[in-house]
Specification:
By secondary structure, the chain is an alpha/beta fold. It is built from three helices and five strands; from the N terminus they run E-E-E-H-E-H-E-H.
Length: about 140
């Protein structure tokens, strides 16, 4: 006997894309190249566009993990935001303004792909959320 089961969705659904390359940068003292990646979480409703939050993970400029806060960021996606967690090179990989250049590159990638609005379903509007208070100067510099 065949039954049709109907599931009531109580919370908005979202999609997570991890490891999306947005730029290539010099690595290992300029002898090789590597991808900079971002994780993107976006709501599943294809009928509308959402504002985007760019998440800059903290780590005292020495270490960073763009995927460390995906559970928290998924909560923001449930509330109607596209969330992008952008990877950047840390201070042990190169001097300032290298991290700033990487973050700006991620924002430019998002803006370029938000015009389509098809896959990422986002407006080219960005909000900045910071994990550590020490990063405020970095976020202010990204808007220029």
């Amino acid at each position: 006997m065949r039954e049709t089961i109907t599931i009531n969705v109580e919370q908005p659904q979202f999609t997570t894309v991890t490891g999306m390359a947005f730029s290539q940068v010099d690595s290992w003292f300029g002898h090789t190249r590597r991808d900079l990646k971002m994780d993107i979480i976006y709501p599943e409703n294809p009928k509308r566009l959402y504002p985007c939050i760019v998440w800059i993970c903290g780590g005292a400029w020495v270490q960073m993990d763009k995927s460390a806060h995906l559970a928290y960021l998924a909560g923001l996606a449930r509330k109607g935001f596209v969330v992008a967690s952008v990877e950047y090179r840390t201070s042990n990989e190169g001097p300032y303004p290298m991290p700033l250049i990487d973050i700006k590159s991620g924002i430019r990638y998002l803006r370029a792909h938000s015009v389509l609005g098809i896959r990422l379903r986002m407006f080219p509007v960005f909000l900045m959320i910071l994990l550590w208070k020490r990063q405020q100067h970095r976020s202010r510099s990204c808007w220029g």
